[in-house]
Design goal:
heterodimer, A: 203 residues, 39% helix, B: alpha/beta, FAD/NAD(P)-binding domain, eight-stranded mixed beta sheet, globular
Chain lengths: 203, 572
């Protein structure tokens, strides 16, 4: 399954001919296949349901890296860059784009490995800031509003029973105690009635 | 540099305190008032399209632009301070309304002991119980003096709540509106806490339970429990925000003008008097605004920074203990813990910022401290503030070790709506070693030094959180939790969100010896300079600061109108 820019999933034989038919903004095809394979191990498609491949996480990450976020628009990036104690947070000079480019080097050939070996490779880099970012972006790609490129057909929200940004629970907040209340999820555009532009397309 | 015509009053910062003072002066005097806000304009309509977790809660669209200005942080003087390159631990707002736009709306009153913490602790437990290096001080005002202003602040915002707790100070009036409808998690907490002999009550809330008309005639609608308060603006105006509660009144006032995009860099002064402020406007032009009265209302850290950069008052020196500006930095010892795992769904996506139940049985000196290894206490609440998936997905019970892959995914999906945490809002004592000063290395986009935070938790906070955690595990078991995670408080870190309740730096106090401000929030030496906000707090009480900050501002507004303007000079 691949995705077009207007968010329509299209079923093609992507797995067999190893082509990514997504209009990529940041990655090249080889890079996208590697990152797609890595996030598929972090949040796999398995017996508990769909995962990062169905959620379009790769498309989300690609758009974020192409956006101002990818070049560190939202971080204080004045020098000097010094190493600190962990509680001082990430102090590196590398932008998210640069961290991915470096990370991709450590994951060369990743997409062609069998799953067990893929997991071993990921465990080797588990402690790196790049992996932390990859894991965080996987969660963001699964569970952010679909206008950002992931969470295709609200699949992430359906998996966990999150209904999206709806206007009112005033008739429900003190009801359903102990019972799951699971209304049909809605995206922000569904709720406000028109297309909403994500910040990455405005800045 | 351009010099503008003189104004009577200039107010730096368009948040809760700055706009409240502007509104009071606009209503009760003919003073010309200029409010300078460095961010852009905001209004309720802006928030309609804003229910997006990624842009607002993760990328922090309503917050200060960290790429232009941040603060540096180190634990102790031995460490090298490095910039907080992304805000996480606390979230300074920007734009009209300031942090009052994205807050949750929890509005407890402080306990009476808060204002006399040092005296009452000494009286009851003796000097031996005060931790080494503490810098505890009384406020120089009492709960009773502030009480009428608490009532006025509650009526301004329409606070929803119930009754009068025997564990809190006396109230001269009830809450203006009844409590919110309660979510499931707080309801479970209330039942369990009651069964254990505690005194649960609805968390006082600036999110309205019913439509409300305040004394200024401003009408706001009831809360819809959509769950988008924390880090968002309210798209219906049910959550009191400066832009929906104060701005509509100010817009009708002839003598108050608002300027956005005005970033104040210095307070100018001569011969012990402030003469005005220097700012950079949205086009980058340097402008001097002369004023007879200067008011800083620009949040804790920036109030302190403006004094330091303007060279007003004596900077605090941690070695000698002398000097006032920058001392008593505190950050509420908040823990989002313990985390409870249930076998039932909680529907935690519903809620509102202040929806919840609180107990104050372990707050202040409401319990005997003779047998414990700390002083102070915590307000403990079970919130239903609207769980969102990016922030809350991935939390798994302690028995699951995986952090990615199938095992983690399965546990995280299962736990997503079956886990919830209490908020332990712990007091943070003031210490001689926790303070603010100018950073020697890092600068903002104008080339001014960043502010440097030197701060760490001490044993008092760690012991306090450990004690509260033990008590809350008992409550959690009574609520039917099947697993409970109890992360301890270690060293202060800048990566995990605690609260935006940073306090201190321009401390209030009965004597100019160790305080910047007199009890009227007036500078002890520069009598035409007032400083509003939680930068005045000598130490960090257990609760959310906004209501107290508003009450203090109203008291100061009264003093300015009835005394200062008639005879400018020191009020104390």
């Amino acid at each position: 399954m691949v995705f077009t820019l207007d968010r329509k999933p299209v079923r093609v034989h992507a797995q067999s001919d190893r082509k990514v038919r997504v209009p990529l903004r940041f990655f090249d095809e080889r890079e996208a296949l590697i990152i797609a394979a890595a996030v598929a191990r972090i949040f796999p498609s398995d017996e508990t349901g769909p995962g990062a491949p169905e959620g379009g996480v790769i498309l989300y990450i690609d758009r974020q890296l192409a956006s101002p976020y990818g070049r560190d628009r939202f971080r204080y990036t004045r020098p000097p860059f010094e190493e600190g104690v962990p509680e001082q947070g990430y102090q590196g000079k590398a932008t998210p784009r640069e961290l991915y480019r470096e990370g991709l080097v450590s994951l060369a050939g990743f997409d062609r490995l069998p799953p067990v070996e893929q997991d071993t490779r990921l465990r080797e880099i588990e402690a790196t800031y790049f992996f932390q970012l990859l894991r965080q972006h996987t969660i963001e790609g699964m569970f952010s509003d679909p206008m950002h490129g992931g969470n295709t057909d609200l699949i992430g929200w359906q998996i966990i029973g999150f209904p999206g940004p709806q206007m009112s629970w005033a008739n429900h907040i003190d009801q359903h105690y102990g019972q799951a209340h699971r209304p049909q999820p809605m995206s922000l555009s569904d709720v406000v009635g028109h297309k909403v532009k994500p910040w990455e397309d405005l800045e | 540099m351009k010099t503008l015509p003189r104004t009577d009053v200039v107010i730096v910062g368009g948040g809760w305190t700055g706009l409240l003072l502007a509104k009071e002066l606009g209503a009760r005097t003919s003073q010309s008032v200029v409010v300078l806000e460095r961010g852009g304009p905001r209004q309720t309509a802006d928030y309609f399209e804003g229910m997006d977790e990624l842009d607002y809660a993760i990328r922090l669209r309503l917050m200060q632009d960290v790429s232009k200005e941040t603060v540096t942080f180190r634990h102790t003087m031995k460490e090298r301070a490095l910039p907080i390159r992304q805000f996480s631990s606390f979230l300074p707002g920007t734009g009209m309304g300031g942090s009052g736009e994205h807050w949750n709306g929890m509005t407890p009153r402080f306990l009476p002991i808060t204002f006399e913490m040092r005296t009452r602790t000494l009286e009851r437990y003796g000097a031996g119980r005060l931790p080494a290096n503490h810098a505890l001080q009384d406020w120089g005002i009492t709960y009773d003096e502030l009480e009428p202003y608490y009532t006025r602040a509650e009526q301004l915002l329409g606070i929803s709540g119930a009754g009068s707790s025997p564990l809190e100070g006396p109230r001269s009036a009830g809450y203006p509106t009844p409590p919110l409808k309660m979510g499931y998690f707080p309801t479970l907490f209330a039942e369990a806490a009651q069964s254990l002999g505690y005194h649960p009550f609805p968390t006082p809330s600036a999110n309205l339970s019913t439509a409300y008309r305040n004394p200024d005639g401003i009408v706001r609608p009831p809360c819809q429990y959509c769950g988008y308060c924390d880090r968002f603006g309210c798209m219906v105006g049910a959550k009191a925000q400066p832009t929906n509660t104060l701005l509509p009144v100010i817009r009708r006032q002839k003598h108050v003008s608002l300027r956005t995009g005005a970033n104040v860099r210095r307070v100018r002064h001569q011969d012990g008097k402030a003469t005005g402020v220097l700012y950079v406007d949205a086009n980058g032009e340097e402008i001097f605004q002369p004023a007879d009265l200067v008011v800083l209302a620009s949040w804790t850290l920036n109030n302190t920074r403006l004094l330091l950069l303007s060279k007003i008052g004596q900077p605090y020196d941690p070695v000698s203990g002398k000097g006032q500006v920058g001392r008593n930095l505190t950050h509420q010892a908040n823990a989002r813990a313990p985390i409870l795992f249930f076998d039932r769904p909680l529907n935690q996506f519903m809620g509102s910022g202040a929806n919840g139940v609180t107990i104050r049985d372990f707050d202040g000196d409401n319990f005997d401290h003779s047998g414990v290894d700390f002083i102070g206490g915590a307000a403990i609440s079970a919130p239903a503030l609207g769980y969102r998936p990016i922030a809350n997905f991935g939390v798994v019970p302690p028995s699951v070790k995986a952090r990615w892959g199938s095992e983690w995914k399965k546990a995280a999906i299962e736990s997503f709506d079956r886990a919830a945490s209490f908020i332990l809002a712990g007091e943070h004592l003031a210490y001689r070693t926790n303070f603010l000063d100018p950073d020697p290395t890092y600068r903002d986009s104008h080339g001014d030094p960043l502010l440097r935070m030197t701060m760490d938790w001490n044993d008092n906070e760690r012991n306090l959180i450990r004690f509260m955690t033990t008590k809350m595990v008992e409550v959690g078991r009574a609520m039917g939790a099947r697993e409970i995670a109890t992360p301890p408080l270690r060293s202060y870190d800048v990566q995990t969100y605690k609260s935006s309740h940073l306090q201190g730096g321009t401390m209030i106090g009965p004597s100019p010896e160790n305080a910047v401000l007199n009890p009227w929030l007036q500078h002890w030496q520069y009598s035409n300079l007032f400083i509003l906000g939680a930068s005045s707090f000598p130490q960090n009480p257990s609760g959310n600061p906004t209501l107290t900050v508003l009450a203090q501002t109203m008291r100061t507004a009264d003093a300015i109108v009835s005394r200062y303007l008639k005879r400018p000079g020191p009020l104390a």
